[in-house]
Structures are given as C-alpha cells and as structure tokens.
C-alpha cells in the first residue's frame, strides 16, 4: 500500500490548486472525474460557489484551534475528492481551515477517479465514498482516516437508508440544510481524533 500512497502523493495538489482546477474545468463546461454530464457540471458549479462561501465564512472554534496548534508531530492529510461531490464541498473548506492552524500538517488532494488503487484501499462500506481523508505520519504510514461525512451526517444517512431504502432528493436537501446549520462543527470534532 505504501507504493500506492507514494504514487498518489506525487500527483497530489494543494487546496488552492484544487479550487483552481475545479473553477477552470467549470469554465470549460467540464467537471472533474472520468464521467462528464450536465448533472455533474451543475453539481460542480453549485459546489464551487459553496466552497467559495465556506472559505470566507467558516470559523474554527477556539477549542479546536488550540488543540490543533498544540500538536507537535508532522502529518500529511491526503484527501480523495471530486469537484461534483456535495459532501466534499461542505467538508473540504473545514479540513483546509483546520490544516492552516498547524504548519506541521501538509494538506494534499487527489481526484478519486484518477487514483482508483488508492480509493480501493479506503472504501466505506464497500463504496468509493468521498471525500476521504487519509492521515499519514512523517514516514507515510496511515495513522487514521476520516470521511466521507461527519459522524452526525453519517448517522442521518444510515437511518434514512434503513427507513427508506435509499437516499432521495428530499433527503439530500435536508442534509445540505444540516450542513449549513452545523457550520462544520461536527467535522471539526471528528478530525480531532487524528491528533491523538
């Protein structure tokens, strides 16, 4: 697995580069990923706006800031993502803000569809769910993972699927409303586990 991680790290880009890639592709009427469709493009446009808004409005709580700033070990956070993914758009700006609080955290992004081997090592319930954060120590050993959603949202999805069989448009709307109300707090709390 170390070779797969190393290979993906060589292709990895920064948060700024990721945001720029998504925006550039939108101007070309494209989305990230192997499949191109009007729906994926529309999701990408919506998510680009969402990430721009969150980049400006997300504020990390003082408690989380202090815990992150106190952390002394080097970590690389390698995040599998795609520009059309709604969960990624809601969580990646929070991940970025947390990483900015400690210079020992190197935050890198790779596209899921271009890193299939890596994605296959970090499936969620057998699926290629994103975003998926892989925390690596200075020797590139996996020390933790996070994703594809904060724990409360994961419970919401699980409960809804058990009751209704699948996620529908109405639930997706409710999930986005939950994200807006939660303001990244649950993601912050979950990510603190990577600092133990």
Question: What's the shape?
Answer: globular
Q: What do the pLDDT scores average to?
A: 96
- Annotation, overall tally of beta strands: 4
What gap, in angstroms, lies between the N and C termini?
Answer: 23 Å
Q: Tell me what the CATH architecture is.
A: 3-Layer(aba) Sandwich
Molecular structure report:
It is built from nine helices and four strands. The chain is an alpha+beta fold and 196 residues long. Strands 2-1-3-4 form a four-stranded mixed β-sheet, sandwiched between helices. A hairpin with a 5-residue loop joins β3 (132-136) and β4 (142-146). α2 (15-27) crosses α3. The model has no long low-confidence stretch (mean pLDDT 96).
Compile the SSE list and pairings.
Blueprint: H1 2-11, H2 15-27, H3 38-57, H4 62-70, E1 75-81, H5 86-99, E2 105-111, H6 116-121, E3 132-136, E4 142-146, H7 151-164, H8 169-182, H9 185-191
Parallel strand pairs: 1-2
Antiparallel strand pairs: 1-3, 3-4
């Amino acid at each position: 697995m170390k070779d797969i991680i190393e290979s993906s790290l060589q292709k990895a880009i920064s948060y700024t580069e990721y945001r720029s890639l998504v925006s550039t592709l939108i101007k070309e009427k494209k989305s990230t990923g192997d499949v191109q469709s009007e729906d994926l493009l529309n999701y990408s446009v919506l998510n680009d706006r969402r990430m721009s808004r969150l980049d400006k409005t997300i504020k990390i709580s003082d408690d989380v800031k202090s815990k992150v700033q106190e952390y002394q070990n080097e970590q690389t956070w390698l995040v599998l993502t795609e520009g059309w993914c709604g969960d990624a758009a809601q969580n990646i700006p929070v991940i970025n803000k947390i990483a900015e609080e400690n210079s020992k955290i190197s935050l890198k992004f790779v596209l899921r569809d271009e890193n299939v081997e890596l994605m296959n090592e970090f499936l969620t319930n057998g699926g290629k769910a994103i975003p998926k954060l892989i925390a690596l120590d200075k020797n590139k050993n996996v020390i933790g993972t996070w994703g594809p959603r904060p724990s409360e949202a994961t419970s919401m999805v699980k409960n809804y699927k058990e009751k209704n069989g699948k996620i529908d448009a109405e639930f997706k709307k409710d999930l986005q409303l939950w994200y807006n109300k939660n303001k990244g707090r649950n993601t912050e709390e979950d990510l603190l586990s990577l600092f133990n």
